[in-house]
Amino acid sequence: MMAGIPVLAATAPLDSRDVCLEPPAVAMVWTGPDRPHETVAVPGVVLRRGETLVAIELAMACASDAQVVTGHRAQRPPLVLGHEFVGRVVDVADGVRAVDGATVSIGDRIVWSATVGCRDCDRCRRGLPQRCRALIAYGHERLQPRWELTGGFATHAHLRPGTAIVRVGETLPAEVLAPATCGTATAWAALESADEVLDVNGAAMLVLGAGLVGITACAMASDRGATVVVADPDPARRALAARFGAARTVDPDAPGAIDDALAGIGAPEYEIVLEASGAARAQRAAVDTVGVGGVVVLVGAPSAEALAVDAERLVRELITIRGVQDYAPRHLDRAVGYLRERGTAHPFLELVNARYPLAQIDQALAAAAAGTSVRVAVDPRDARRRR
């Protein structure tokens, strides 16, 4: 029993070994909506074939984490939240390889996928591991016997077999790398999805929402020669988008602003519209705004409202609507590659302008819910030193 959190007894698998942690790992456990996190010490893990133990360097608190703790996104406690992270390998079982095929070794600085597919079901075989029928999602799994280090709000993470691992080197700051495991890789996946219909290079593109995904997609697309208009009601977010390559930024609530921006970039119509806010009205605007033969990419879409579309217009104007949820391993690898090349060309470091120690996870999540920062950092290093 850990601080009122029941943990069932379990027998260690035969193909495994005990790894003692001295001092013990620390995990911040969410036990229910609007309740403070509980601190749990984890003195060791059972490391099985294909698994990896990572000391977390930095994690990020995002709006989806905040929605869980306030009860606006359904999850079953107890669990360790956090799905954006960077860390260093402190132990690794045999047979673990990175996405590029290299052997993962102790001391490697890595990022890893927020989800894990089984590699065997029909969806995994179709190249959709993020929608695996037996999906594991870090930061969303209930605590289990011998698997307590399930999310990013901890000093360590216990990675399951099949986790996509990308080695990241020592140069880029943790604040730039940690978001790669969610927003950056998702932005890459969204542009790849658009590319399968219409070449992003040189396209006239509208991005609705200047959060992490929208701003990052703007940077990636503009680096490829696209002319990007970014719409967001927050003037601070619009100013930020301009620094990430947006040719125009507009308030979507201002009448005619999106059409005026199109005229301002000298394009006849928006060929690609990427909806990255999840707001129902933005989803409707995305479908209404895209031009003939264009593609709409909806990312995430947590809105509970149904999206009504004019089917006759979709057919007549040859419009494609695509959905993107999370990403596949190749997207994470290519997103990190993009950051290596362009991570200092855009102010990615400035997207993280609030930082909290692990012990103040409740304050960090409150800051994430406030929305004044694109990302809020959670630093576990003090927790490791204190124990």
TrEMBL record:
Cofactor: Zn(2+)
InterPro entries membership: ADH-like_C (IPR013149), ADH-like_N (IPR013154), ADH_phosphonate_catab-assoc (IPR017743), ADH_Zn_CS (IPR002328), GroES-like_sf (IPR011032), NAD(P)-bd_dom_sf (IPR036291)
Origin: domain of life: Bacteria
Keywords: Metal-binding, NAD, Oxidoreductase, Zinc
EC number: 1.1.1.1
Residue intervals of the Alcohol dehydrogenase-like N-terminal domain: 49-160
Domain Alcohol dehydrogenase-like C-terminal: start-end pairs: 213-327
Signal peptide positions (record): none
Annotated GO MF terms: alcohol dehydrogenase (NAD+) activity; zinc ion binding
Classification via PROSITE patterns: ADH_ZINC
GO cellular component assignments: cytoplasm
Family classification: Belongs to the zinc-containing alcohol dehydrogenase family.
Protein name as catalogued: alcohol dehydrogenase
Species of the source: Microbacterium album
